[in-house]
Amino acid sequence: MHDDHGSGHDPRLERIRAWLGQARFFAEEVYSSRYRGAIARARRDEDDLFMLLVFSEMMGVPNPAAYYTLELQPLLLERFHDWHCRMGMERSPLDHFKCC
After folding, report:
1. Are 41 and 16 contacting, i.e. CB atoms less than 8 angstroms apart?
2. What does pTM read for this prediction?
3. Which of 16, 52, 84, 100 is a good FRET partner for 61, with 20 to 30 A between their CA atoms?
4. Which NCBIfam families did the record assign (predicted)?
5. Cα separations (Å) of 43 from 31, 33, 62?
């Protein structure tokens, strides 16, 4: 005996699933559009804090996780200039690393 209810090959069910997927997408967009700026600011603040954690040892701030964050520094160097400008530092705070 073959049961087709759970297989998902019914074209009507596929159309209903596609419509529900699009309805969910639009509902999420409508809901999150008001908070998009706040979400972006919160994400940027988290990124700034993470950047400070990664480069804190180079700026003289003791970092207990320096061993683990050292290998992340090359990955974050592309965003370093934007970060120190956003933090209010006109020039790079690192003596041995000049990005601008």
Report:
1. no
2. 0.60
3. 100
4. CC_star_Cory
5. 18, 15, 25
